[in-house]
Sequence to fold (719 residues):
Amino acid sequence: MTPDAGPDAASDAAAAIVVEHLTKKFGEFVADDDLTFSVEKGEIFGILGPNGAGKSTLIRMLTTLIRPTSGRALVTGLDVARRPRSVRRAIGVIPQANTVDSDLTAWESLDIYGKFYGMSRAERRDRSTDLLQAVGLWEWKDKAAGTYSGGMRRRLEIARGLVHRPHVFFLDEPTTGLDPQSRRVIWDLLEKLRAEGDLTVLICTHYMDEADRLCDRLAIIDHGKIAVLGTPRELKASVPGQDTVVVQFFREVGEAMREALRAIPDVSDAAVEGDHAVRMVLTGEVVPLEAILDATRRLENKVKSVSVQEPTLEDVFLHYTGRGLRDTVSTEYVRPLPPMMR
Amino acid sequence: MTLPFSLSRVLAVAERDLRRFRRNIQLVVPMVMMPIIYLLILGKSMGGDLHHMPVAVVVQDEGAASAAIRKQVMTLAATKQLFEVRDEVDVRTAVDRLRQGQYRAVIIVPPNFSEEFARGERAELGLALDNTDATSANTIEGEMRRAIADLRVEGRPVTRSAVGVSVERVDVYGHKNYMQYLVPGVIALSLFFVAMVAGGIILVDDRARGIHEGYFVTPLTSMDLVAGLTLSATTLALMMGSVVTLSAILIAQLPLIGGLKTLLLVEFTILLLGLGLVLMMFTLMARVSNPMTPRALFGILNVVTFFPSGALYPTESYPGWLQAISMVNPMRYAVHALRNLLLKGVGLGAVLPDFLILITFATVMLVLASTLFKRTL
Fold:
């Protein structure tokens, strides 16, 4: 069928995705700027970034929908620009836009997509049955997808993207706008696939909890560039002095307590929360308990509880990009945000 | 009591709509263009003078009167560009060719015509007419009668009062009405609608809904896509075309002269025109992503394909520019073939040129559609 004998890069045989100096320009606008990274086989790799960061453009290049301006990308060792047809056979894709065919039933959708990949009738039947059960659509398999909820459509798309047993699975914001139950079903499914071990997943998201829970490694991209790349733990550890401590007091607290706590050398910022709590941002790793208790005694109050909050990926994102990931940022203790830019 | 409307709310709703039109000026243009195109195309495709109708003359007589008749016919051809005259030797051959659609009329000057005329008897001039097209048949008959009235034989006028020439009109196909004349056009129109919906509107809607984006990440090639979409739309065209054909035949009470063979050739014509129109629509919509565009173009495309097809009025009446549109219009050839098949019961040989043009048209459109069809976003 094809002249695709071997992979384009023997040296990277272990990597499912290799991206080298990949750049995409639309006229003057640089959507993706000199990206370089690789994704190991069997890994769930996250691309984290706000809207307009270049996530979808990256996925579209990796899934052969648009051609890179320069640089190259290999998927399962095949160059996406030179061997798009072979790449398409190896990948499953959940685009950001909803591409479910509302006029077809779930069963018909999977069956037709199976035919696109030349699967036999028996293969299609077995695979469709397994997948529809896995995504919880078995009872609905003979209903037109037009009657499905948003979450069901997304689950159908995921089943459809997996029908031909792809080696690499691309998901562009698979849970955006979905209800919590659908999100959980999708996460469980992806974790189950990872446990089976033969599927590499590249997922774009702007949900921190999703990235934190699912991804083995992730890259934060902003303005088309990789800001930082690593495991979620590494990324959180790399943010200096972003631990916060919330102290609950017995009696009401006010400006005096805030000032007293702010004056502690290891505290970079403090804010009153409600009537009985103060939130502090620490500069170091150690909680200055002694100093906190001293201040409490001075102001004739007592400590009810102390809770330490580790940095979240949200903090990581802020640290590396200097702006919030979501449109609404409620945390008042962090440094002032620059105005949102597209 | 509160009013069921408020002026400010009404104005806000109106403002939103008007702003929308201003942002989509490309959709407003067809609304203005449409009536103007109607005026031009409808005005010039209906009721114009007929020209260059193919007519055969069979002169079986050597006398002076028959020479005068022939001269008169040639004058009509030269001055009004009414006829394209061909001489035929044999009446049977000439009428056979008329039945195959080669001639609109055969003018027969029988043996002894001049002799009878010279003797002062009533000389009969034969006029065999292709009456499947009433407009051209009536025009030819009228022009011939007027010409005979002006006939001069060896300088002497042949007045109406004098014993002279009578024109015997022979309708080759018995009685035909306008409804039957319309059937081929209606069949072609049904195929246009299928092509517009299946090839235009659904194609662009699917593109806008992301169905194609879903396809593009699979191994489907652009050839797979164009061929698959063509197959489905053409299948639909064949089915719809057949239903409309059978309904129209029943409603217009059209006798099926050629029987099963004609029906098969009609089906083949439907297939060829359906294919051509579907591929034409794919070509036009290859790069279109706004679902409103095919809807806005629907009317204009309908006018520029249907009216200059000869479905309503003979193509011989069109001015040059309309002829040019008509020449590249696949509907013209399909209507011509369908009319010959359904109203005259001709065989494959008579419609083969139409078939070849339709096949050529579909092939050109296939190449254009495949070239223009984008495989990437």
Observations:
- Chain A has two domains: 11-231, 244-310.
- Confidence is low (pLDDT under 50) at residues 1-5, 325-342 of chain A.
